Amino acid sequence: MNRTIKIALGSIVVGIMVLGFKTLAWHMTGSVALLSDALESTVNVATAVAALIAIRIAQRPADRSHPYGHHKAEFLSAVLEGVMIIVAALLILEEAYSGIRNPQPMDAPVNGLLINAFAGCINAFWCLVLIRQGRRLKSPALLADGQHLLSDVVTSGGVILGVSLAVFSGYPILDPILAGLVAVNILWSGWKVMSASLGGLMDRAVSDDILRKIRATISDHADGAIEAHDLRTRHAGSMTFIDFHLVVDGDTPVAQAHAICDRIEAALKKQLDDAQITIHVEPEHKAKHSGVLVL
Questions:
Q1: Euclidean distance between CA atoms 272 and 213, whole angstroms
Q2: Residue 210 burial by Cβ neighbours in a 10 Å radius (0-12, 13-18, 19+)
Q3: H helices of the chain, where?
Q4: pLDDT digits over 176-196, tens only?
Q5: What's the CA gap between 93 and 283, in Å, rounded?
Q6: Contact at 8 Å (CB) between 172 and 105?
Q7: How do residues 4-38 score in pLDDT, each as one tens digit?
Q8: Alpha carbon 231 to chain centroid, angstroms
């Protein structure tokens, strides 16, 4: 079992644990805001399961039906997570509306807040793990899960502060109003997760920093070539796809042109662990002399 799957399994365990604590906090207090926090945690559990399934699919090797691999499955998981976050926010808005129409005092608020704060601390720790490992392992599913948990941590902090204010000020209507604000924040979080994942499904290019490294690597290791042009890049999960045209002298032997390509590929794979590179070799009359990487 590789590290990415272990972390995804850990997310499910942590999600169930946090959901249990937050549900207990809501049950003890009757707070609409704490209910909103617990509802978001149900999304955490569901999306952690979806992320695990997507990661397992994404790691399947290429086959006859999917010759380019299954890497985009992680992006589908992240889109699903965004949809579920938005659904949770709408449910919270419904509860908040009912609470504003009929505000109720809370029971045992101090104990409930302490339990909720403990759950928030667990989430904060796991959020850091997910974001760091998601970036290191280039996993959109883990990164989306971590970013959602970060939003959950911020939300929990706001909920604790707001519920405390509602209790000690004597204005119980502040509780459902706070729940409504939480729902708006969750809607924004869901949109960000969805937009980032849709970019991956639409074959978004690599970042400018990575693109500069790719261009420099090609230029530094293309001795014997005349130029390189038409560079294109895209992401699919942890995989980076790179393709470009390499122009060589028309008299260059096939073996020599192949050696140049091998040298460039090896250098690029040192820069990007999971890279699939396609180089189209062309004779010199195909040179463009504009937008080139090698001169």
A1: 10
A2: middle
A3: 3-29, 32-58, 73-101, 109-136, 140-169, 174-201, 208-220, 254-271
A4: 887 788 788 778 877 776 776
A5: 63
A6: yes
A7: 788 888 889 998 999 999 999 988 888 888 888 88
A8: 26
